[in-house]
Amino acid sequence: MNWSQIETGWTSYTANAKQQWSKLSEQQLSDTLGKREELSSQVQQAYGLSKEDSERQIADWQSRQLEQQTVQAAK
Question: Going by C-beta distance under 8 Å and a sequence separation of 6 or more, which residues neighbour residue 1?
């Protein structure tokens, strides 16, 4: 799954993003509009992470979204 799919369907991913990054408000997540750079910046600020660490978390989260989609499609 590439990021543009997440960005396009961001409203359906915000609940999962909120579970991952609970320090971010729903408004903060919504305000990113699914833009990876914006999400990375919000995660960095909220958790005091480096850009590399926030990007790593986002990449891991993105992989899990693909896994969840695969499982749901198999049902």
Answer: 62, 65, 66, 69
